[in-house]
């Protein structure tokens, strides 16, 4: 597995850049990573990312957008505004989780 | 009298009932509950829009239960797993010692703004994940003389995740044969980042879309369906003259009402033992669970013998030790009288190669061939006559890696 370094941080990632060791994540690191995709992380961003981490720790899987809405109370539309583009993938990456798997 | 209760009389529930009947002695009563007595051969839904008669897809559920299985035709309204009790729409209640949830999944168009209304209107928006929908789509395809056709997946997971691609290939072939393919602009629209979820299959299937001049729109998370417009959360809008959509798939309403499942109504299931992670006397077979593999009849079939072994172990006071590997296997219709074959499990993605025997085949994995297509059509008879009654089929339940070509490590 490759190791990425960003500023003072280094962390194990898979071939697509997603964290393989979730505990190597921190809010500060997420802020650094967010600058790479031109997002300045606010408390709103962090609330979503922290919910994802908490939920993933409980269920063992990166939550879906539907789950973010129904369990976390986040509006999908607003998540798209907070993390424009490939929203869920970006959120999974920024929260130090695995790429969201859609079952085959 | 000890009681085994099975919720759902489809592929999974019928197999479970018949296989367990052969294992349990007459001190056990086996009961299957379903809302109606119509067993649908769901793989047929794919062909109904093109050529299969809807009536060919449906038979009576009761014809496929072996002796000693009782069928109750009633809708489940609520389960109380703590009280081992199931409430039915008629007001009747049933109790159980062991429960198998085999209630499958269903398309829920109301989860997407405008989708249910547009489907109801029946002018530009259709689906083939219900038999009625597939029959209506048949007429719509026939009337369609050209324009923009979108084939669209709302979100994953869906049952039979390759069916939308198969439909796309068959539609392309259908308009080619009608001689108006040049007037039909086909786009495959998916929330995934490619034609499929796993790398090798995505590459092969993606190439095939390109070869057939079918456009691909990825990462499309649908927000709403309007009159001729499909909109995504990131602000993209796709125009269409005909939309064939796969609505979000969810577990049954009674699972949601009973708080037995996750956010989408799928029962949280141990992916190896097939036992509920919350209740020791509840097992789950088929699409109703949340296993990280395909929602498909093949998975219900390959996992059925694991379920039987583990349920018998639990009944005898032992730990369930048989382990399901996530084996799934599907014929993918690719048009032109051909089909491809996918074979995979939790660990191994669909690969190219031959099946079931290394080098010999006769089936080729992930490449279109005539024999794969014949295999798909022949499966209809195998399904009714061998699979549902619980007769052995000469295919191993666990996936084999022999015959598969693994990609080189980077």
From TrEMBL, chain A:
One of its GO terms (molecular function) is transferase activity. This is tRNA 2-thiouridine synthesizing protein E. Belongs to the DsrC/TusE family. It holds the Pfam family DsrC. NCBIfam families: dsrC_tusE_dsvC. Gene3D superfamilies: 3.30.1420.10, DsrC-like protein, C-terminal domain. The keyword Transferase applies. Transmembrane segments: none annotated. Keywords: Cytoplasm, Transferase. It is an enzyme of class 2 (transferase). Its EC number is 2.8.1.-. InterPro entries: DsrC-like_C, DsrC-like_dom_sf, DsrC-like_N, DsrC/TusE. It comes from Arcanobacterium wilhelmae.
UniProtKB/TrEMBL annotation, chain B:
It is an enzyme of class 1 (oxidoreductase). It holds the Pfam family Pyr_redox_2. Residues 3-138 form the FAD/NAD(P)-binding domain. GO terms for molecular function: oxidoreductase activity. Gene3D superfamilies: FAD/NAD(P)-binding domain. It comes from the Bacteria. InterPro entries: FAD/NAD-bd_sf (IPR036188), FAD/NAD-binding_dom (IPR023753), SQRD (IPR052541). Keywords: Oxidoreductase. PANTHER family: FAD-DEPENDENT PYRIDINE NUCLEOTIDE-DISULPHIDE OXIDOREDUCTASE, PTHR43755. This is Sulfide:quinone oxidoreductase. It comes from Arcanobacterium wilhelmae.
């Amino acid at each position: 597995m490759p190791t990425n370094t960003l500023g003072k941080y280094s962390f194990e990632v898979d071939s697509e850049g997603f964290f393989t060791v979730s505990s190597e994540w921190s809010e500060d690191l997420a802020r650094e990573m967010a600058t790479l995709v031109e997002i300045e992380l606010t408390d709103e961003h962090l609330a979503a990312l922290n919910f994802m981490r908490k939920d993933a720790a409980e269920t063992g899987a990166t939550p879906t957008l539907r789950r973010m809405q129904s369990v976390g109370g986040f509006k999908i539309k607003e998540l798209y505004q907070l993390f424009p583009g490939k929203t869920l993938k970006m959120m999974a990456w920024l929260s130090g989780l695995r790429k969201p798997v859609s079952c085959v | 009298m000890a009681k085994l209760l099975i919720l759902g009389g489809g592929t999974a529930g019928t197999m479970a009932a018949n296989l367990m009947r052969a294992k349990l002695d007459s001190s056990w009563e086996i009961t299957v509950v379903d809302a109606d007595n119509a067993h649908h051969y769901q793989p047929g839904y794919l062909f109904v829009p093109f050529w299969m008669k809807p009536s060919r897809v449906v038979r009576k559920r009761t014809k496929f239960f072996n002796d000693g299985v009782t069928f109750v035709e009633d809708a489940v309204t609520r389960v109380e797993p703590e009280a081992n009790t199931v409430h039915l729409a008629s007001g009747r209640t049933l109790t159980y010692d062991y429960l198998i949830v085999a209630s499958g999944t269903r398309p829920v168009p109301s989860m997407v703004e405008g989708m249910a209304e547009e489907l109801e209107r029946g002018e530009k928006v259709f689906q083939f994940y219900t038999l009625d929908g597939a029959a209506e789509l048949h007429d719509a395809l026939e009337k369609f003389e050209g324009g923009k056709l979108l084939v669209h997946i709302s979100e994953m997971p869906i049952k039979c995740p390759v069916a939308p691609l198969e439909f796309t290939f068959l539609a392309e072939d259908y308009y080619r044969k009608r001689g108006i393919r040049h007037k039909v602009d086909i786009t495959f629209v998916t929330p995934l980042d490619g034609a499929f979820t796993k790398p090798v299959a995505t590459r092969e299937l993606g190439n095939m879309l390109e070869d057939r001049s079918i456009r691909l729109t990825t990462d499309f998370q649908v927000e709403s369906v309007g009159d001729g417009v499909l909109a995504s959360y990131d602000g993209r809008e796709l125009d269409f003259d005909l939309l064939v959509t796969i609505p979000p798939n969810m577990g049954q309403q009674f699972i949601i009402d009973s708080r037995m499942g996750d956010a989408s109504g799928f029962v949280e299931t141990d992916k190896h033992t097939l036992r509920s992670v919350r209740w020791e006397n509840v097992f789950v077979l088929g699409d109703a669970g949340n296993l990280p593999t395909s929602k498909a009849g093949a998975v219900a079939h390959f996992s059925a013998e694991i379920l039987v072994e583990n349920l018998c172990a639990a009944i005898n006071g032992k730990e369930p030790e048989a382990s399901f590997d996530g084996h799934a296997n599907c014929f993918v219709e690719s048009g032109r009288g051909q089909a491809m074959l996918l074979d995979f499990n939790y660990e191994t993605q669909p690969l190219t190669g031959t099946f079931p025997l290394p080098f010999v085949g006769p089936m080729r994995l992930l490449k279109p061939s005539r024999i794969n297509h014949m295999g798909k059509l022949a499966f209809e008879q195998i399904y009714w006559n061998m699979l549902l009654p619980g007769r052995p089929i000469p295919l191993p339940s666990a996936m084999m890696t022999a015959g598969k070509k693994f990609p080189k490590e980077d």
